[in-house]
């Protein structure tokens, strides 16, 4: 059973270029999360979707970042234009949220995309 | 204010011994969940254990157990019989609220090193 799939695994680009990160969640999951991990700021939630709808994008650093989820099996995180401070590991995670108090829905993480902006 | 606090940047333990990784949290919501994840040097995030705020008993998963002290707002991870493969970063995380949406807030992590 495939887990969360992310591509590319590594991306090196130059400042000013557009970067697109891709994620395929686990089939049947209805929530998708984008995180960024850096040494300075740790693991930060950027945005999450429920049933393909963005629920909370308050973690998106600025307008250069955008995320879409056109269907239940695909999401993108785009940075345009990229800057050196965007260098980080970007994780996508998915879960099935059934709701209810004390609902237990672990998030399954993808392997991450290591982004380096020169 | 920090929602999740992990005060131990690094911990050392000898193989086969037990180790406790600390986690305290801050929330006023009566409904919440606490998670522990492991991140080995390869980078992936691996779910270890979950504790719900209404759970009466401490969660256990194999060698992992969660020492949940609700009044003190702590959810420490206990790893028994440490193995070399346990060397990794460990993150505590919290989900707040009764929404069904699983937004997690993570702590800064504790790096565990298991020595032979």
Structural overview:
The complex is a heterodimer of chains A (118) and B (116). Chain A is an all-beta fold. Chain A is built from no helices and 11 strands. In chain A, strands 2, 4, 5, 6, 9, 10 and 11 form a 7-stranded mixed β-sheet that branches. In chain A, strand 5 (42-50) and strand 6 form a beta hairpin. Helices cover 0% and strands 51% of the residues of chain B. Chain B contains no helices and 12 strands. In chain B, strands 2, 5, 6, 10, 11 and 12 form a 6-stranded mixed β-sheet that branches. Chain B has a 4-stranded antiparallel β-sheet with strand order 3-9-8-7, with no helix packed on it. Chain B has a two-stranded antiparallel ribbon with strand order 1-4.
Using the alpha-carbon principal axes, give the shape of chain A.
Answer: globular
Summarize model confidence as the mean pLDDT of chain A.
Answer: 92
Helix content of chain B: under 10%
Structural class of chain A: mainly beta
Would you tell me the overall average pLDDT of chain B?
92
CA(first)-CA(last) distance of chain A: 36 Å
Q: What is the count of β-strands of chain A?
A: 11
* Helicity level of chain A: under 10%
Element-by-element helix/strand order of chain B: EEEEEEEEEEEE
Oligomer class: heterodimer
Counting DSSP E segments of at least 2 residues, the number of strands of chain B comes to 12
> What is the number of helices of chain A?
0
Largest interface: A-B, 29 and 27 residues
- Unreliable parts of chain B: none
For the largest beta-sheet of chain B, the strand count, sense and barrel status come to: 6 strands, mixed
* Helix count, DSSP H or I runs of 4 or more residues of chain B: 0
Strand content of chain B is over 45%
Please compute the radius of gyration of chain A using only Cα atoms: 14 Å
Which overall shape of chain B is indicated by the principal axes computed on the Cα atoms?
globular
| Biggest beta sheet attributes of chain A | 7 strands, mixed
Which radius of gyration of chain B do the C-alpha atoms yield?
A: 14 Å
């Amino acid at each position: 059973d495939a887990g969360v799939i992310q591509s590319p695994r590594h991306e090196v680009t130059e400042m000013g270029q557009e970067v697109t990160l891709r994620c395929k969640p686990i089939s049947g999951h209805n929530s998708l999360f984008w995180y960024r991990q850096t040494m300075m700021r740790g693991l930060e939630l950027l945005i999450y979707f429920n049933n393909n709808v963005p629920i909370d994008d308050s973690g998106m650093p600025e307008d250069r970042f955008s995320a879409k989820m056109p269907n239940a099996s695909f999401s993108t995180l785009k940075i345009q234009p990229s800057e050196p401070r965007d260098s980080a590991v970007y994780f996508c995670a998915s879960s099935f949220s059934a709701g209810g108090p004390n609902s237990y829905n672990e998030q399954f993480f993808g392997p991450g995309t290591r982004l380096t902006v020169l | 204010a920090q929602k999740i606090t992990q005060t131990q940047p690094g911990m050392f333990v000898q193989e086969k011994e037990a180790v406790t990784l600390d986690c305290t949290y801050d929330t006023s919501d009566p409904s919440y969940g606490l998670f522990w994840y492991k991140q080995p040097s390869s980078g992936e995030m691996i779910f270890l254990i979950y504790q719900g705020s209404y759970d009466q008993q401490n969660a256990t998963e194999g060698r992992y157990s969660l020492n949940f002290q609700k009044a003190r707002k702590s959810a420490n991870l206990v790893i028994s019989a440490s193995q070399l493969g346990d060397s990794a970063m460990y993150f505590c995380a919290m989900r707040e609220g009764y929404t069904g949406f699983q937004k997690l807030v993570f702590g800064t992590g504790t790096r565990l090193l298991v020595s032979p």
